[in-house]
Specification:
Elements: E1 8-14, H1 21-29, E2 36-43, H2 49-54, E3 61-66, H3 71-81, E4 86-89, E5 95-96, H4 100-110, E6 116-124, E7 130-132, H5 137-144, E8 149-150, H6 153-158, E9 169-172, H7 175-179, H8 190-201, E10 205-216, H9 230-246, H10 250-253, H11 257-270, H12 274-283, H13 290-301, H14 305-321
Parallel strand pairs: 1-2, 1-4, 2-3, 6-10
Antiparallel strand pairs: 4-9, 5-10, 6-7, 6-9, 8-10
Length: 324
């Protein structure tokens, strides 16, 4: 296959994921869609992951090595090296179902005005039971109103119909020339930052309600180890709002801000940074309901109440989910 014939470039950052990378690579090679290249960006691994990739014999694989610079730098290297019209992302510890690329590309070809698309996905919990993270197929189709896309990414995110997870997204390569590359100064949230920048320029996003990718949540990650100063979290939230105002899209973004803050608060709870939680609540209180603020504030002062709130929510769901 010549460079001009490659339609999709799959970018896979690799850093010390030797235990999983072959599974990820094989899930790409097993795709029913075959017009792709796979760029594995070895970001300075210290285990034998790169050698395991080299042992896989397939001319569509390119192993590119660099000094450790982080996942954003690895993805940026892959984008720069890519030869395809479309860029797909897959981390080395996740994997795809065999029709992932086929369905994504077919959707994009049927809707040539779309610059990006996403699919529903499974979460692998390690308990041998996969759970779709989104609404069921019929509910999502109803929300889409007979279309294969949502008119506004932010509205779809706010209604929790679309969660733009990196391993379930394909983006046209020329879009990165318009919005820039992944931010390399964030310890997390760099993907959300990218999807927001794309959404400000290209609000329509294709979506496939069928889960076609698998996020392996059972893999030990570094999210809770990323002990960021509170000022960095402030900076990230301020960055989102400033970008939105710059693009006259703040009203579209605003309903998503409580979700973003909740995500940050969950990480802080895992790190037992209760004082920082209270400060975060105070700084961004205009975006949060008073009830939510009270519940989180109490949990941050008296952590044992977290369990009580969880029990209350389970009882509430059980009571009100039953048909009367």
């Amino acid at each position: 296959m010549t460079d001009s014939q490659i339609n999709v470039s799959v970018i896979m950052p690799l850093y010390n994921k030797a235990q999983y990378v072959v599974r990820a690579v094989e899930s790409v090679l097993a795709q029913s869609y075959t017009n792709f290249e796979l760029l594995v960006i070895d970001d300075g691994s210290t285990d034998d992951g790169p050698s395991k990739v080299e042992a896989v014999s397939d001319s569509r694989i390119r192993l590119i090595k660099q000094q450790n610079a982080g996942v954003s730098a690895a993805r940026n290297r892959g984008i720069n090296e890519a030869k395809g019209k479309w860029i797909a992302f897959l981390d080395a510890d996740d994997f795809w179902m065999k029709d992932y690329l086929t369905q994504q590309i077919e959707l994009l070809e049927r809707n040539p005005d779309l610059a990006w698309s996403a699919t529903n996905f499974f979460i692998e919990t390690g308990s041998q039971q996969r759970k779709g993270i989104h609404s069921n197929h019929d509910f999502t189709k109803m929300k889409m109103g007979g279309n294969e896309y949502f008119d506004n990414y932010f509205h779809a995110r706010y209604t929790q119909t679309v969660e733009a997870w990196t391993g379930s997204i394909i983006v046209r390569k020329d879009i990165f020339e318009k919005v820039g590359m992944f931010t390399t100064t964030m310890s997390h949230g760099e993907d959300t930052d990218m999807w927001f920048r794309i959404a400000f320029k290209c609000p329509q996003i294709g979506y496939i309600p069928e889960p076609l990718a698998v996020y392996d949540a059972s893999v030990q990650g570094s999210l809770t180890e990323a002990d960021e100063p509170l000022s960095v979290i402030y900076m990230r939230m301020d960055r989102y709002t400033e970008m939105a105002r710059k693009h006259n899209s703040f009203e579209e973004l605003k309903p998503c801000l409580p979700q973003l803050l909740n995500y940050e608060i969950k990480i802080l709870f895992k790190q037992k940074r209760y004082t920082d939680i209270r400060r975060l609540l105070h700084k961004f209180k205009e975006y949060l309901s008073k009830r939510y603020q009270l519940e989180i504030y109490l949990c941050a002062i008296f952590p044992p109440t977290i369990g009580l709130f969880n029990v209350y929510k389970k009882i509430k769901r059980k009571l009100f989910s039953k048909k009367l």
